[in-house]
Each structure stands twice: as structure tokens, then as C-alpha cells.
């Protein structure tokens, strides 16, 4: 699971802008944001760089319950 959606909301950044910065389609980024698919590690690091956060802030551990 990732926290991209939460970080975008906190920073007031739109998915469309992130998609443009990454050079990826809106649909691809929307898949990441909605947790339908997970970005490759390299892409996750690029997202963190663009958003100005530590990559660890984009990762959420699954509940073990």
C-alpha cells in the first residue's frame, strides 16, 4: 500500500500535475493513487523527489490484524 493520495491532498497537488512531472499518463498515476497498482521502486523514489518527501513517507504498512 502507498500513501501517495494522502501526500497529494496535504500538499494540495493534483494527480494531473504529478503525471506531467513524472512523464506518465494520468491513468497510470491514478492507479498508483487509488492503490490499484504499485509503482516500481524507481518511480516511487521519483515521486518522493517531486513531492519533496522522504520515500518512506509514501509507504504504508499493511495492518497485520
TrEMBL record:
Q: Which Gene3D superfamilies match?
A: lambda repressor-like DNA-binding domains
| Superkingdom in the source lineage | Bacteria
Looking up Pfam families in the UniProt record yields: HTH_3 (PF01381)
A Gene Ontology molecular function term for this protein is: DNA binding
Start and end of every HTH cro/C1-type domain?
4-58
- This chain belongs to the protein called Helix-turn-helix transcriptional regulator
Amino acid at each position: 500500500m502507498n500513501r501517495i493520495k494522502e501526500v497529494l491532498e496535504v500538499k494540495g497537488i493534483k494527480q494531473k500535475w504529478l503525471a506531467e512531472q513524472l512523464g506518465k499518463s494520468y491513468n497510470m498515476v491514478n492507479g498508483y493513487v487509488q492503490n490499484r497498482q504499485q509503482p516500481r521502486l524507481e518511480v516511487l523514489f521519483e515521486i518522493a523527489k517531486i513531492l519533496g518527501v522522504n520515500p518512506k513517507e509514501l509507504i504504508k504498512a499493511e495492518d497485520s490484524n
